[in-house]
Amino acid sequence: MKTSEDWLPHFRRAKSLETLSLMVKRAVEQCQTSSEKFQVYKAEELRELELEKLNAPERFRRL
To answer: 10 Å Cβ neighbour count for 62?
Structure first.
């Protein structure tokens, strides 16, 4: 079974939340158990936080 740490490098290829959402959807379709799905969603959450940190300076420039 893949853990969130296994999924995270894959999800790091996503440069936007939209792309990440598509990647997560495909990953969930491959999962056999709810615990595998949990790991996918956990990795998604970690990547979302990373993307938010990357985009934070951009938000401040717009203000």
So the answer is: 5
Identify which of 16, 13, 10 has the alpha carbon closest to the alpha carbon of residue 43.
Answer: 10
User: Residue 25 and residue 55: Cα distance in Å, rounded?
Assistant: 23
Phi, psi of 21 (to 5 degrees): -60, -45
Residue pLDDT, tens place only, 4-59: 999 999 999 999 999 999 999 999 999 999 999 999 999 999 999 999 888 766 55
Rounded to two decimals, the pTM is: 0.81
CA distance 53 to 46: 11
Is residue 27 within 8 A of residue 40, CB to CB? The reply is yes
